[in-house]
Amino acid sequence: MFEFTREQEMMRAMVREFAETELAPRVREFDERGDIPRDIFRKTGKQGLIGMTTPKELGGSGIGHVAAAIAVEELSRIYPSLAFSLADTPGLMHIIEHFGTEEQKDKYLKPSIQGESILCIAATEPTGGSALTDLRTEAVPDADGYTINGRKVYISNGGIADYCLLLAKTGDRASIIIIDRDNPGFIVSRRQEQMGFKGLHISELAFSDCRVTRDSVLGREGGGFAVAMTAFVVNRPPIGAVGLGIARGAFDIALRYAKERVLYHKAICNLQAIQFMLVDMDTDIDAARWLIYYPGAALDRGVAPRDLCKSAARAKAVGAEVAARVTQKAMEILGGYGVSPEYHLARFLNDAMELFPAAGTAQIMKIIQAGEILKQ
Fold first, then answer.
1. Count of H helices and E strands in the chain?
2. Are 117 and 42 contacting, i.e. CB atoms less than 8 angstroms apart?
3. How far is Cα 53 from Cα 92, in angstroms, rounded to an integer?
């Protein structure tokens, strides 16, 4: 068990103010245009919200994975699309920090932390889904580098990323290759429409005789699966924190409404049925909070990602579940107003449902946990 530090609580207050002043007035605009302006990413960079898990010597603040999850949670209370976009970055920065060359760290980390460039990771394929070992995308080596051909789907930030960390076959094994979006043969095939995360670019990418140099490999050639899995483990707790933030945002709306809505000559928060629902929602949120923050706290203590597969998978799964469950109850408390765009709950529920397949389906998260349990 752990407690949030004074520094973390101060950071929470700062992020909350940023979300309520910079995001809240514009969330409908972002959803309608289907895009988060680059100036918002730059502002999050200036606020220090992107490089929290990266050491100061590499351009980050180094205040840790718990702090990063707090930031994601607070942003998600207001606009989960932006929160999810940022939740996908700690794992990518982690693998560049730990597997990258000095040149790669300098080129990719600092601009991303400042919000000047955006990273994405491309692993999922049309025929593979969660079976990443069944890769069809190939990077064929020659004397000068690699020629890449293949397709990737459901890539978060794929349509706007400046650099893509691609998982591709290099011979009999896979490697992570960093590709500049301006490389000839790198194609954003289409944006994939989703029921939620309307401001987030989720895209299909194609690679057609895309050429990269030898120094584009992150880590060693053939070590791509281990690198990719490290990124996924590090990313899952903040993705769980997106769900926690959605739940908290929905709960706040329901609680405020229950105190203001008068029925039978008194506020409906005095009705026992409403009180029981509020209690269940609050209990779900508190229980989820510790499961979601635990792996981040362990990473901050120096625990290796490979030793956190179970807790990271659980954090992600619990985040999706609590987001959907609490938001549905909030909609019931609001009655007819629960489906009105004015109260944002329908948007929250759509965003919550997006979390179930993100970064591995709910069933894959259970398979991971079961595998770790059976090792005991």
1. 13, 10
2. no
3. 11
Q: DSSP string covering 113-157, please? A: HTTSS-EEEE---TTTTT-TTS---EEEE-SSEEEEEEEEEEEET
Q: Does the pLDDT value for residue 2 go beyond 70?
A: no
CATH code at 119-222: 2.40.110.10
Q: What is the largest CA-CA distance in the chain?
A: 81
Helix (H) or strand (E) holding 212, with range, is: strand 202-213
Classified by CATH at the fold level, domain 225-374 comes out as Butyryl-CoA Dehydrogenase, subunit A; domain 3 (1.20.140)
For residues 216 and 165, give the distance between their C-alpha atoms in angstroms, rounded to a whole number. Answer: 10
Report residue 298 as tokens. 């362990």
Q: From CA 106, how far away is CA 261, in angstroms rounded?
A: 55
**Distance of alpha carbon 340 from alpha carbon 349, whole angstroms:** 12
Closest CA to 121 of 83, 72, 168, 185: 168
Q: Tell me which amino acid residue 163 is.
A: Y
Model confidence at 128: pLDDT above 80? no
Average pLDDT on 127-137 reads 80
Q: Which two tokens stand for residue 49?
A: 């919200």
Q: Where residue 224 falls among pLDDT bands split at 50, 70, 90?
A: very high
DSSP-derived letter for residue 192 is P
CA pair distance 144, 354, nearest whole angstrom: 41
pTM metric for this prediction: 0.96
For the chain, what are the domain ranges? 6-113, 119-222, 225-374
Q: Which residue has the tokens 């069933």?
A: 363
The gap from C-alpha 207 to its chain's centroid, in whole angstroms, comes to: 24
| pLDDT range class, residue 127, cuts 50, 70, 90 | confident
CATH code reported for the domain at 6-113: 1.10.540.10
Distance CA 2, CA 217 (A): 38
- The pLDDT tens digits of the residues spanning 245-282 come to 999 999 999 999 999 999 989 999 999 999 999 999 99
Q: Are 232 and 360 in contact (CB under 8 A)?
A: yes
